[in-house]
Amino acid sequence: MKKNLLIKSVYYFVFLISYVTFSQERVIEGIVTNSKNENLDFVNIGIKNKNIGTITDEEGNFQLVINDKNKEDTLSFSYVGFGELNLRISDVINNDIKNFKLKEKSTELDEIVIHTKKKKEKELGTTSYVSMVAGYVRADNDKNKNIQEFAKELKIKKPSKILDLNINLFNVNVDTTSFRVNFYSIKDDLPFEKISSKNIIIEQNIENGWNSFDLEKFNLKFENPVFITLEYLPKTKDEEEPFRYSGQLLGKSITRSSSFGTWDIKKGISMSMYVTVEQ
């Protein structure tokens, strides 16, 4: 009798814990559009510095699983060429907001002229790798379709045009992948604010070894140090690890696994990623 009562108590306790855990989560979903009601794909959505985020799909739709304890946090939306949208999550829930509209912003960049008569090409970043250094690529996608973003500081000292971005990969388990290339200003030796004027989405096949992404047609010119990032855009949540990236000893590796998430810094190793510039 006591044994049966104990078993029932354990079942009830497990059920109660499961119920409480489940009841603490809720789903925010909707569609992100511009002022012309055109759907925006791959919009970054998340809670800043909480590592809770997602992206919209190719039709502008999204789902984000959050915990009830985040109801008073702010939900942020970011897309190149548009002003950032910030809404209190409790307002989104209480007003049942499903359509999130971003406003275009005008971006005026100073023209950078490369005066060198005989232009030279130069590689900036980490151009080699060792087999003992590896990076694992899998965002925390069990609940949300989250990104992975890899950053590399470009120590530019004179006017330079970005020609291509290169990264060394291995254990490649996918054929075609989607990436976004971003540029950030620098603060405290980390990527700070996006300074990209173009939403650069690249979809191409990847393979084991060096993979090159052609950026010459985007006419990207800088004359001061910036961060360039390669942002992996998953097609589904809870997907298998798509690839791993190679690295080199010394330096530091800077990555993050969520839209608006915190940057993860690993010292003593650097990601095998570099750009070719024309100066």
The total count of strands amounts to: 20
Number of helices: 2
* Large-scale geometry: globular
Low-pLDDT stretches are 1-22
What class, by secondary structure content?
A: mainly beta
Could you tell me the strand content as a percent range? over 45%
Q: Main beta sheet: strand number and arrangement? A: 13 strands, antiparallel
Number of domains: 2
Could you report the average pLDDT, rounded to the nearest whole number?
88
CATH topology category name of the largest domain: Jelly Rolls
How much helical structure, as a percent, in the residues?
Answer: 10-25%
What is the CATH level 1 assignment of the largest domain?
Mainly Beta
Name of the CATH architecture of the largest domain: Sandwich
> How many angstroms does the end-to-end distance come to?
84 Å
What is this structure, in a nutshell?
10% of the residues lie in helices and 47% in strands. With 279 residues, the chain is mainly beta.
Please give a structural write-up:
- With 279 residues, the chain is mainly beta.
- The chain has two domains: 100 residues, Carboxypeptidase-like, regulatory domain (Immunoglobulin-like, Sandwich), CATH 2.60.40.1120; 158 residues, Jelly Rolls (Sandwich).
- The protein is built from two helices and 20 strands.
- Strands 8, 9, 10, 11, 12, 13, 14, 15, 16, 17, 18, 19 and 20 form a 13-stranded antiparallel beta sheet that branches. It has a four-stranded antiparallel beta sheet with strand order 3-2-5-6.
- Strand 2 and strand 3 form a beta hairpin.
- It is globular, with a radius of gyration of 22 Å.
- The N and C termini lie far apart (84 Å).
- The relative contact order is 0.21.
- The N terminus is likely disordered.
